[in-house]
User: Fold these one by one.
Assistant:
Number 1:
Amino acid sequence: MQSITTFDAEGLWSYRAVWFSRFGSLFETAMAFIAHSEAGDNAAELREALHVETKHCLLRLVRAGQVRREKLQGCYIYFCSEAKKYSSQRKTREQRNNKPLATMLVANPDLAEDEAKAVVLLFLSALDERQRRLYAGLESLKLGYGGDSYIANLFGMDPHTVSRGRRDLEKGAWDTSRLRVEGGGRSSVEKKRLKL
């Protein structure tokens, strides 16, 4: 009789919303995922990968000395206990943490669909018009050719606004005391009435 079990590239298989692992128990699976991770994992990343809550499992693995745990930028990251792998993972995690959000989205397009995009848009909503334009221009500069349209699409902005922010940064000539150039923005109601 042919087996219906087909494990994916990660070593997982699901049947009717129940997940199985070729590594064995949740503890063994979490250890394997952490060991094979490029930059270690946090609890949320493992939960998403394994389709199950992992906090208690991770705590037990840390207490048993089977994985390392470090707090980086306010979040616990779990690393392989083997020294050489740990060193490589930690270095990669630090490099990721130092990348700007939009650069992270370019490097990991799948993230753009959920949490990372939400974080960027939340950050943008806290900026004024000039700051949004300059930030979008900065991210476009980092990306190079095609950056204006990519960032405009990602941030939900007009490509001309992104382009203007980029040009302002390139020139290094922007007025920090004003949101718009003199005479910029919508016409006042009085001016509109005069035109009629």
Note: The chain has a mean pLDDT of 80.
Number 2:
Amino acid sequence: MIKQNILIVDDHRENLIALEAILEDPARNLIMASSGQEALQLALKHDLALVLLDVQMPGMDGFEVARLMRNNRKTKAVPIIFVTAISKESKYVFKGYECGGVDYLFKPIDQQILTAKVEMFLEMDMQRRKLQQAVVQMKRLKDENERLLRAMGDCVIGTDEKGLITFCNDAAGYLFGEDRDKLIGGKIDNLLFRDEDQALRWSFADSPMVASCGSGRSWRSTDPLYVHTSGDVKSVSVSANSLNLPGEPFSGVVIVVRDVSEHQSSAEQLAREGRRFSRKKMFREMVLFDRGTGLNIGRLLNISVDGFKLFTRQALQEDTVFQLSMVLPEQIFGVNTLSFNARNVWSEEQDGDGEYHAGFQFVDLSDTHRNIIKALMEKY
């Protein structure tokens, strides 16, 4: 259990002992200071939940301590309760509030009032900490989900209950020949649900996808659907899962779209799975070089006819087109090296200091190079 720190500031030793006796608790860490200068040093050293600050102290009084705390980024939000034996005139109270105090206690201190106020501010501090933890956790989950979406080779699209696209990954942008951000807000009907002649097979509301997912079940296309981009027609398989649980109002779907234009047989798929280990071993040896500078850009992590993923030790600028070359693990179609242009679509820092993963898409890959990559994937 993390203890909450309370800083108690008073230039009289007996007052510190009295406050310590009242506030001592296993869940609290009481920090004592006998001067304003010492209080500032301790405030910067510890993560404080509350400060009980005596006003009348020699040298630097409580008002000055409060002003300096409010001007420091680390301590400006820490609640300060002034403890004073001076006159209760409003001008002194106003001065305390002007200096950043949140409350006033007058000596002699009423133990019940002190306890109640301290418990209230400690509860507020605990709620603040829980909120900060929740924000950090949400950001971590968001980052993890974003990395997952980017890492997936399949196209992933999310829609609301009306079929409007709410999110998608980079693979979706590539499959549909459109910038990822421009797909957001568009109708899923315009991308899917078409036959080979581009005729709309279903609207989103009338589709079997919504009929199934609307009741909280998953759905998978039994007949191929088609994607039309720049005169090219691709056959795709589509599966979807509802965002809502059974019995809940329909709120949208998460759709996975896979290009099956070059469908593989089960035997071919099993053979590829059996070669997974040799592929990983091969990737450890394959390094990409910038043809313009001759510098090592990074090590290959995976590759497909659409693009590849690198391990690199530099933050690469997104949307930059690189002129790259790599040495093949063996001669393929009489070629020992492969040269091509590729655009960096994302770059993310990893846990290790100065380590990055980066995703690339091929730019104008020739048919010869595409066949070499296919042969490379088939062999390894």
Note: Confidence is low (pLDDT under 50) at residues 264-281.
Number 3:
Amino acid sequence: MDRLGFLDAFTAEDWQGVDEVIIDIARDHPTALTESLERLAGAVGRERVRLALPALTRKWEERGLAHKVEHLRAAGWRRWEAANLSAWTFLGLDAGASGTGEIDLATDWSVYALNRMAARQLLGMGVTRFALSPEDGLANIKPTLAEFGARAVLIVYQDTPMFLAESCAYANLIGGCPGKANCSFERMDMVSAHGEAVTALDYHCRTIVLNQGPFCLSPRLGELARAGAVSLRADFVYRKYDPAAVAQRWRLVRAGRVVPGGHAANFDRGVL
């Protein structure tokens, strides 16, 4: 998730069996982020918290991100997730090395592991686990699940971005940018040229377009277990959820029940 407040409605039962909580560090100021992470660590244990680097960092954002990573590493955070190969540079690692030393590094789905050779390459680069792509299909992931077991993480709930644009959809709509201080744009619903209902969200003055319903495989947990899936993950990123809604959807997913508006994307068709 990218907002620690999403966890505010979790109960002790919601934490049962949770292996780790992954927090995207891009949104919050380093001081506020550190304070929130310490509170989370007090609740679930520092060894169950992993910090995620963003998939996209522009040149003008590098300095701030590097400062944040340095600040968090100095505070003792050693479990990280890479969404891009640039993470090795931000974390001071050698991408060609066979280990990551003091850092426990995982990869997100955007570091594509679409076959077993790619997965082996990531493990050879010191990665301890890797997330499979929500764009992939069941037939293709079965050999990977069979070979790598718990190290292969299967996402079963996510608002997968359809695309990300550097331009602001709202500014384009009104004919100009009103400036950050005067802008109230958070989201708007649109219909694509293909007739799809989509949601455009502001994300640091960028536009992220999401399907109005989440990618969700919760009704298929039994089938996934038979296919060899051990590590399952739910993402609550980009969309501004109410904490109670996060807890409710988390419980539906864990119970194998249908989440309203959920869809299976390419899971049956596979990657074309």
Note: The radius of gyration is 19 Å.
Number 4:
Amino acid sequence: MARSAQRIVHSEIGVKSWTESPPSCASARPPTCAACAAPSRPAGLPLVVVGHGLRARATEGPLAPGSAPALLDVWTRRYRCRACEAILVVVPAGVGKSYRYSRSAIAAALALWAYERVSAATVRARTSTAKTIGASSATRWASLRRWTRSALALFGIASELGTMRERAGRIASYVAAHAPIGTGSVPYDAFFGAAFCRPS
């Protein structure tokens, strides 16, 4: 039997609010199926997108700008579409598909590295909960370059020109521009803007 398609659906709720007060099955249910666009609650008919359980997902990074990094198990909500059998996984706004770190943490990290010229080691200390670091990685963090190369999947923007740090700067600026209320601090605005960027 072929495995059902799985689609990630981002809620409007941020990671911090989601973990403090997880949404109910009804409140987190997507209005339509992300795979076939069938309405979840057709008028006068049974539900099409139905609850399909919970699944824990590890998410790492600060929960607010400047706060200490945390490692959390976020309980994501799963749904099954009766029309096409797709499995929908609803996650908080800041959670990225297949990424351990939250998109907010990644955006802020890129901004700190590119705009504030903070060292990679310091950015990692502000973003990661890891305490044990190999000697060869004491002064660098490969994740920053990996995230820069993956910006299209993370935030819907690709930057191919310039040094890796210059590319990270343009990505951070793009994400910061999506913050609901701009403060002028790129790392701060990028943290909140990440939830409003649509991955490609």
Note: The longest strand covers residues 49-62.
